Each structure stands twice: as C-alpha cells, then as structure tokens.
C-alpha cells in the first residue's frame, strides 16, 4: 500500500494554541491544542506517534483539506462538459475520496512561530486528475484559534470542476451531560446520505430560508446541509465550547460514525455527489473554475469559555 511520510513536522503556536502540521502527509493538521486553565484541550483528535500513514486508509485524526473535489465519488468517474472522466487513484475501493491533495507532498514557502504557508502544484495532467492547477494553503494561530486558508488556481487551458473543503475530526467528550457534544448551526435544508456517505443530495432549485439545526453529536449519522450559515458551535466540556467558522463554503457535511469517539464537521463547496448530480446551471455556479481563475476556502477552529448563569432561588 502507498504510504505518506509524516516527518518532518512544523509546529506553530500563539496565545495558548499549538498546532502541528505534516507537509509531506498531505499538509495534514496532526494536532491542535488549547491551553485552558493550564490544561491542554484537544481541539481535534490528535495523531499518535506514527512515522508513516497509509495514503488511502489514514488514521481518523487531525484534519486535512479536500481538493479538487470533496467527499465520496463512487465510482470515481463523471461527465464534465461532454467529456467522460475516469479517475485512477490507486484505491482498492475504486472510490474517489476527498480529492487527492491530502495524499500529496506540499512545499513550505514561508513560516514563522505562528503561521506556515504551503504550496502544491499539480502541473501535469494525470489519471488522478486530467487538469492542472496550483494550490496554496496557509495555517495560522492567534487568540482566536487556528485559521486555515486554502486557494486553488486553474492553470489548465480548459475549465475544470473544483470543490474545496476542510475535514476536521472533532473529539467527543466522555461526559454524559445533555449539552455536551451538542452541535448547533444554521442551514436551509438537510439531506440524510447514510452512514457510508453515498446517498443522494440534490441541490434545491430555489434558495430556502435558513433555520437552526441542533444535533446530538453522539447519534451515528451522515448528513449534508444546504446553504450553511458558516458557524458551528459545539460543547466539548461543561463550560468549554468549540467554534468552527467558514467563508466560501455554501454547504456543511456532518459525519458521526458508530462507536467511535469523534464527529467530522466539514465545510464544503458543493453537496456530496455534485460531480454526478448537479445540473449544468448548478455546476456552473458552484463547480466550474475557468482558466486563470481562483477559488478560495477559509475556515477557523477555536475554543471559548462559556460562563453559565446560576439560576436565582
């Protein structure tokens, strides 16, 4: 099986946050901790002490960026502007899974104590993706937490589909408290796509009003949410809340597997199955990237203390 080398890693830190990134393992975030009252709180499931990871069966930990497409593509083929595209990625499942940026070696172009900038150039058409593009990724930490800024430029001679996303593994608290592990966010519509993530999520023709969704993070499910409001809040301890924010991510995917202590909260640029199910108008609006154009995704993850009021007697 192809493997990705984890070392060497890059450490960035500021204002109580520490992040560890592996450029060679798909520019993965391996660890993000927050110093809360001198206790290190894991904001993502931390990687163990590994030197290599399987390129197609990676540990369910950390976080990674998704590009040039998001979520599952089964089988790994689609039609684009009259062209039949068959992707070959070496996976025994035959699925396309979260693109392939997370299976490549990124180059560090700038770094400081609190940030690291990386780039990756897919410069030759290949069976894995028949268009060329250039990607930039910036990680930074501050008092607000971790910021993740991903950009992709189409360097090909023809338009190509691009959907960007971020895939963090958020740890679930072991505390049996009603508010702990509850997720809250706004969106317009939910699509239940099954635990395998292969169900159909058809994009609505008309934009609906947003309303608040509240989820129990302990119940196994996989769902996609249209017209995502951009913020997700989740209690991980009695008085500590994680907040994920995003820009340029019109949708959200939430995956809670059975009997595993994490939930994936993924801001994404298109609904699952978009490469197969979108109409031409929808593809032009959310997927199509013309030569020379850029597409962006900005996400952040931070912790904040919540002071709960004491009821009057």
Features:
313 residues, mainly beta, Beta-galactosidase, Chain A, domain 5, 6-stranded antiparallel sheet, 2 helices, globular
What average pLDDT do the residues reach?
93
Strand order of the largest sheet: 12-13-14-15-27-23-22-18-20
- Major β-sheet profile: 9 strands, antiparallel
Work out the strand percent. over 45%
Assembly type of the chains comes to single chain
Number of strands: 27
Terminus-to-terminus distance = 63 Å
The CATH class label is Mainly Beta
Residue stretches low in confidence (pLDDT < 50, at least 5 long) are none
Structural class by sheet pairing and helices = mainly beta
Name the overall outline. Answer: globular
CATH architecture: Distorted Sandwich
Number of domains: 1
CATH fold type: Beta-galactosidase, Chain A, domain 5
DSSP helical segment count: 2
Query: Helix fraction?
Result: under 10%
Rg (CA only): 19 Å
Helix-strand pattern: EEEEEEEEEEEEEEEEEEEEEEEEEHHEE
């Amino acid at each position: 099986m192809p493997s990705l080398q984890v070392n060497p890693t890059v450490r960035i830190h500021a204002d109580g946050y520490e992040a560890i990134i592996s450029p060679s393992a798909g520019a993965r975030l391996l660890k993000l901790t927050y110093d809360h009252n001198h206790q290190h709180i894991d904001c993502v499931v931390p990687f163990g002490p590994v030197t290599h990871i399987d390129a197609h069966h990676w540990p369910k930990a950390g976080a990674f960026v998704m590009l040039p497409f998001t979520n599952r593509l089964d089988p790994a083929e689609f039609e684009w502007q009259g062209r039949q595209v068959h992707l070959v990625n070496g996976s025994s499942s035959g699925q396309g899974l979260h693109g392939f940026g997370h299976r490549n070696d990124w180059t560090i172009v700038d770094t400081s104590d609190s940030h690291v900038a990386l780039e990756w150039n897919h410069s030759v058409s290949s069976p894995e993706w028949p268009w060329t593009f250039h990607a930039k990724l910036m990680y930074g930490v501050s008092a607000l937490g971790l910021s993740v800024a991903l950009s992709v430029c189409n360097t090909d001679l023809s338009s190509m589909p691009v959907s960007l996303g971020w895939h963090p593994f958020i740890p679930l608290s072991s505390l049996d408290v009603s508010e702990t592990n509850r997720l809250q966010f706004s969106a317009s519509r939910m699509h239940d796509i099954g635990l395998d993530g292969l169900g159909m999520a058809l994009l609505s023709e008309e934009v609906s009003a947003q309303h608040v969704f509240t989820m129990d993070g302990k119940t196994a499910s996989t769902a996609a949410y249209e017209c995502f409001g951009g913020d997700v809040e989740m209690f991980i301890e009695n008085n500590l809340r994680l907040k994920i924010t995003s820009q340029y991510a019109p949708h959200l995917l939430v995956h809670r597997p059975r009997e595993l202590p994490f939930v994936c909260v993924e801001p994404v640029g298109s609904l699952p199955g978009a490469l197969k199910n979108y109409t031409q108008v929808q593809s032009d609006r959310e997927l199509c990237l013309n030569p020379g154009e850029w597409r962006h995704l900005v996400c952040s993850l931070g912790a904040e203390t919540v002071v709960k009021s004491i009821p009057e007697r």
